[in-house]
Amino acid sequence: MNSETLQSLEQQFNIANKNPEEIVNELEKALNDQQKETINQLVALDKEVDDIINQINKLDMKYVEFEGLIEAHTEHIKAISRGTQNMESYLKVLEIRIKNEKQLSEYIK
């Protein structure tokens, strides 16, 4: 270990003038603290992932709901279109009847 690394460790872990067992204990404590922090970060990340999954599921449910609404509106529009076509056909029939009545009326005169 070079002197710079040793000095850095001495400052970081306060191991200057300690025996090897105390140094090991300090390093183990630092490692345990780091592991606890890592575990806490992973737990927090896991919660964030769960939250994202829940949001995706809610969006999926909304999509299915909107898909159903779109399908219902599409069927309604098709029904209106059929009704419009029927009315147009009926209008043509009426126009033909009126035309025939006019012709018949003129013929009778």
From TrEMBL:
<feature type="coiled-coil region">
    <location>
        <begin position="17"/>
        <end position="62"/>
    </location>
</feature>
<protein>
    <recommendedName>
        <fullName>Exocyst complex component Sec3 coiled-coil domain-containing protein</fullName>
    </recommendedName>
</protein>
<feature type="domain" description="Exocyst complex component Sec3 coiled-coil">
    <location>
        <begin position="21"/>
        <end position="106"/>
    </location>
</feature>
<keyword id="KW-0175">Coiled coil</keyword>
<dbReference type="GO" id="GO:0000145">
    <property type="term" value="C:exocyst"/>
</dbReference>
<dbReference type="Pfam" id="PF09763">
    <property type="entry name" value="Sec3_CC"/>
</dbReference>
<dbReference type="GO" id="GO:0006887">
    <property type="term" value="P:exocytosis"/>
</dbReference>
<dbReference type="InterPro" id="IPR019160">
    <property type="entry name" value="Sec3_CC"/>
</dbReference>
